[in-house]
Write a structure and sequence with these properties.
Structural class of chain B: mainly alpha
Distance between the termini of chain A: 21 Å
Number of helices of chain B: 12
Number of strands of chain B: 0
Order of helices and strands of chain B: HHHHHHHHHHHH
Strand content of chain B: under 5%
Number of strands of chain A: 9
Helix content of chain B: over 70%
Bound molecules: adenosine-5'-triphosphate, magnesium ion
Shape of chain B: globular
Mean pLDDT of chain B: 85
Largest interface: A-B, 29 and 26 residues
Oligomer: heterodimer
Largest sheet of chain A: 6 strands, mixed
Strand content of chain A: 25-35%
Radius of gyration of chain A: 17 Å
Chain lengths: 213, 275
């Protein structure tokens, strides 16, 4: 489903991705690891079509995520490394995602409840006024409600309390069937149960890529 | 299309909650109120000339402060969202860049145009209530001028926003452009004129390229062309061009200018890394 071909991305002199090639298929549940600055976020953003590569390309189901971004993104759920300070209220944010991507609002509420986030009590609150963990819970709920074939998480658990993490992993386990799950993490032991493939990056290259069961 | 309106609508709602919008509306509404309070004190003669004079004063101040308001509040809209990672999340949904960009522009346009427009409506309604004659010609000319003034500077602001690296730089650039159009061009043109080395047509053409100059002249064009406040450039222009032609130019050209800048901004936005 995702094919990365000889991808190189530079920022000035800094080479963030150096000739990276890899392929992710349906039912690949990948833990993407590596030191800070290894290029994990850069790889993810390239898959989402945010960066124009210096060399190489990314294809998602054969489509270019830059030129055909709408088709590609329809099928991707994404939670970023840092929850952004979005000024929309929860209600407006939910309208945004449901109108633009056809996400069912009741489903968002369902997954929020599963994560112990009471959305109804916060409908008119600005998103950025939620606590760090609450923001992440909502973004996770939206990502699950989107029902995409590709789920990309860039360290989504940083602000979650242990209970919420368990809820999250349980939900993910229930939802990963027949999908691609790309999960950036620094704590492999937490996601070991979920993944069947481990990729390590360093200095912009993939240093190891192994299947585990 | 629905995504375009969605983006515009959400941007509008977000702006209307922002503090800058409150200040912005208070400034223009307050300006009108202030004129009335000041005018009312000497207002046995609040006839035709009273309300027209008020609108003239309003638009002359607005021409100076509206551009800087638009520039500083808008120039950060895309670059700011990029800086604090809002773009990274919002653009992970199935929204085309075209819808996102033009939706933002439409939302911002309504945000900046509405208060200045409503302030004039209030002036008209209040003037009518106290029995003054309504100068409709001036009212329609000024709503048109403010419309195209807003378009021009909104386009410029989005253009800047699309390529600057950080919002601080964006602010600096915006301020420079404002000062440049407001003062430096005039000073430069006057000195050129005094040197007498260039033809008058050339200088007038240069002056007309500046949207702020056009607005200044158009705003007073309905009044007596002998008015001394106009300055030499304005006088010559109104002398050589028919008033109708000039009014159309003064409304059409800045809109085209704004659209051109906005479109250039879009091309850059599309070609650059999004985050
Ligand atoms: N927009 C950018 N401009 C300049 N340099 C960048 C940019 N984004 C990333 N980099 C550089 O690219 C390299 C890889 O960064 P990246 O964010 O991909 O690392 P990461 O693996 O996600 O690290 P972390 O674990 O800390 O999140 C770093 O050296 C970083 O400084
Ligand atoms: Mg990262």
């Amino acid at each position: 489903m995702i094919k990365v071909n000889n991808l190189t991305k530079k920022f000035g002199q800094n080479i963030s991705l150096n000739n990276v090639s890899c392929e992710f298929k349906k039912n690949d549940y990948i833990a993407l690891m590596g030191a800070n600055g290894a290029g994990k976020t850069t790889l993810i953003r390239s898959i989402l079509g945010y960066y124009h590569p210096d060399e190489g390309n990314v294809l998602i189901d054969g489509l270019d995520p830059i030129k055909q971004r709408v088709e590609v993104l329809t099928n991707i759920s994404f939670v970023p490394q840092l929850p952004p300070p979005i000024k929309l209220s929860i209600e407006e944010l939910m309208n945004y995602v449901s109108i633009s991507s056809g996400i069912d609002k009741d489903l968002i509420k369902h997954y929020s409840n599963e994560m112990k986030l009471d959305i109804n009590a916060n409908m008119n609150k600005s998103f950025f006024k939620l606590s760090g963990g609450m923001k992440q819970k909502l973004l996770i709920a939206i990502s699950l409600a989107k029902k995409s074939g590709i789920i990309i998480y860039d360290e989504p658990t940083a602000n979650l309390d242990p209970k919420a993490r368990d809820d999250f992993y349980r939900l993910l386990k229930q939802n990963e069937e027949d999908k691609v799950l790309l999960f950036v993490t620094h704590r492999l032991e937490e996601v070991e149960e979920l993944v069947n493939r481990q990729i390590y990056m360093d200095l912009g290259t993939i240093t190891s890529d192994e299947r585990v069961s | 299309m629905k995504n375009l309106y969605l983006i515009a609508y959400l941007d509008l709602k977000e702006s209307m909650r922002a503090k800058w919008f409150l200040v912005y509306s208070l400034v223009f509404g307050g300006l009108i109120a202030l004129f009335f309070i000041a005018g009312v004190t000497e207002s046995q003669v609040m006839g035709f000339s009273g309300l027209s004079r008020l609108l003239l004063m309003y638009i002359q101040i607005t021409i100076v402060i509206l551009p800087i308001f638009i520039l500083i509040t808008t120039v950060r809209s895309i670059s700011g969202d990029r800086d604090n990672h809002i773009l990274e999340y919002m653009l992970s949904f199935a929204i085309s860049l075209r819808q996102y960009y033009w939706g933002k522009i439409i939302g911002r346009f309504v945000t900046v145009y509405m208060p200045v427009f409503l302030a004039m409506v209030i002036a008209i309604v209040y003037g009518w209530a106290i029995g003054a004659a309504i100068p409709w010609g001036i009212f329609f000319l000024y709503t048109g001028l403010l419309f195209s003034l807003s378009s021009a500077f909104l386009g410029i602001a989005f253009f800047i926003s699309s390529f600057v690296k950080s919002s601080e730089v964006a602010l600096g650039v915006a301020f420079f452009i404002w000062i440049f159009l407001l003062a430096f061009i005039d000073i430069a043109l006057i000195s050129l004129m005094m040197q007498n080395r260039f033809s008058e047509e050339l200088i007038i053409t240069l002056a007309l390229l500046n949207p702020m100059e056009i607005f200044r002249i158009a705003a007073i064009s309905l009044f007596d062309p002998e008015l001394t406040v106009m300055g030499p450039v304005a006088f010559t222009i109104l002398d050589t061009m028919s008033q109708m032609k000039f009014v159309l130019l003064s409304i059409g050209y800045p809109i085209v200018l704004g659209l051109a800048f906005a479109y250039a901004g879009f091309s850059i936005f599309k070609k650059k890394d999004l985050v």
